[in-house]
Specification:
about 475 residues, alpha/beta, Rossmann fold, Dihydrodipicolinate Reductase, domain 2, ten-stranded mixed β-sheet, 15 helices, about 35% helix
Length: about 475
């Protein structure tokens, strides 16, 4: 394994040298098939403990060649809880740290799992990649879209393995759907819709319990805020902010980045779409008047240059009447279940007089995955052992694309702006979005398609009725039909 004890001493130099330094560091391969992979945890709070730590403990017990050797956590009660659990389950007493940089320096790691609040993801991911480590980062990949693009670039330069923690991307169904779409099963793909509804009698994210043990003596508050790196403004210690941070804009974006990112990532994987061209968000706080900043009702509409629209919508105050998760095309629709536990999906054909193709409704089977979180970590370990970043089911390019949809939707809601993206440049100035489609219509097409489309014009054209020959402008009083 690569010795990383000099990480802190050389971090400033690495930042200056940029990608050249990163490339040199990444020349050392990840854990080979006959070596044990040393993993450290950064910020294993709720999700970081229940999903990251416990999944990898289970995989260790199942015989995977991994050792869980370090825990970096600013809350000493949680730090000891996690470390004690690892010792009990694996027999290894992990090093206990407040600052993750000390863990990287001392533990000779091969990989880290990042489970901190969103505002830390970019900084910690960049530091880990620069230190030559493979990374598992909980969703969302970053706090902002520009941070997401930066992580994607640094990841590509590093050659390291990185998985973004949207576990539903380890369902085989999305690759299966993508092949059907590209082969033209639905004809021209027009749009997708998805959701993540919830309901609660206490308010979304307020079910994370506050305890008297949470004090400035047990929690390094300045470090949690990220004051050293200007990640957040200074503010008094607050148990509510610490434990229920998803309710507050400085640290998260509510349902946009905690929930919408799940289903949005799946839809992007299924369609092959990535960064949108136009995004608008809407919503408000209509019931949960508990001091939160983020909305309890929200919708994002994202338009893509491939001629596809994505709709993501939900409320945190109603769960039993969720909208269906769908992908629509000119010749039919794929209808999916809500959640991750489905064993198939439905093909709903359009009417024969429209398609002029004989189609039957059908149920298309897929392989269910009992525990998607465990499968997602297995996929990451497989990629690390093979030293093959392309094996990961949710790589940073997909993570950045999902962030560009949900985070721009959140910004649009807050700022009252429509956002446009062109070659990663984000603007609230309309470049003529509607005009370009109107010009396409005047020119008579052609239709744009999802990446990987190989079905030609199937389901992508319309015929002109005979009577349309009577249409068109009369120039100098002359009937255009007289020329036909």
């Amino acid at each position: 394994m690569t010795d990383r004890r000099n990480f802190l001493k050389t971090s400033a130099t690495m930042a200056a040298l940029g990608s050249a330094t990163l490339s040199a560091q990444s020349a050392s391969a990840a854990a080979g098939s006959n070596e044990r992979m040393r993993i450290g945890f950064i910020g294993p709070g709720g999700r970081g403990f229940s999903a990251h730590v416990k999944s990898l403990c289970a995989l260790h017990a199942a015989g995977r060649a991994i050792d869980l050797v370090g825990v970096a956590e600013v809350y000493e009660v949680q730090r000891d809880r996690v470390a004690d659990h690892i010792k009990k389950e694996t027999g290894t007493d992990p090093g206990r740290y407040v600052d993750y940089r000390d863990m990287i320096e001392k533990e000779n790691l091969d990989a880290v799992c990042i489970g901190t609040p969103d505002h830390w993801h970019h900084k910690q991911t960049i530091d880990a990649l620069a230190a030559g480590l493979n990374v598992y980062c909980e969703k969302p990949m970053t706090k902002t879209v520009q941070e997401a693009f930066d992580v994607e670039d640094k990841w590509r330069d590093s050659g390291k393995v990185m998985q973004v923690g949207v576990q539903s991307t380890s369902l085989p169904v999305w690759d299966e759907v993508n092949k059907l779409l590209c082969d033209g099963k639905l004809g021209k793909v027009l749009g997708f819709q998805t959701e993540y509804f919830r309901n609660s009698d206490v308010g979304q994210w307020r079910y994370y319990k506050l305890t008297p043990e949470m004090t400035p003596k047990t929690i390094d508050w300045d470090r949690w805020l990220g004051r050293e790196h200007d990640l957040a403004e200074d503010m008094p210690f607050d148990r509510e902010v610490y434990k229920q941070w998803r309710r507050f804009w400085p640290f998260g974006s509510g349902m946009f980045t905690d929930l919408f990112v799940h289903r949005t990532t799946s839809m992007l994987k299924a369609t092959g779409l990535r960064v949108p061209g136009r995004v608008v968000g809407a919503g408000g706080i209509y019931l949960e008047y508990d001091g939160r900043g983020v909305p309890d009702v929200a919708t994002v509409a994202a338009d893509f240059n491939e001629g596809v629209q994505g709709l993501i919508t939900a409320t945190m105050c109603n769960q039993e009447s969720r909208i269906n998760q769908l992908i629509r095309g000119h010749y039919g629709t794929f209808a999916f279940g809500n959640g991750e536990g489905f064993d198939g999906f439905d093909f709903i054909p359009e009417r024969g007089p429209v398609t002029h193709v004989r189609q039957e409704a059908e149920r298309i089977a897929t392989t269910p995955v009992k525990n998607t979180t465990l499968a997602h970590f297995e996929n990451w370990l497989d990629a690390c052992e093979a030293n093959d970043p392309s094996m990961c089911n949710n790589q940073p390019d997909l993570g950045a694309a999902a962030m560009s949809v949900v985070n721009l939707g959140a910004q649009s809601y807050r700022n009252g702006q429509v956002y446009f993206v062109d070659d990663r440049k984000i603007s609230d100035k309309d470049p003529g979005w509607a005009g370009k489609w109107e010009a396409r219509s005047v020119a008579g097409g052609p239709a744009s398609h999802i990446p990987g489309w190989n079905a030609g014009d199937y389901g992508s054209t319309q015929s002109a009725p005979e009577y349309m020959k009577y249409g068109g402008p009369w120039v100098d009083g002359k009937d255009p039909a007289s020329e036909t």
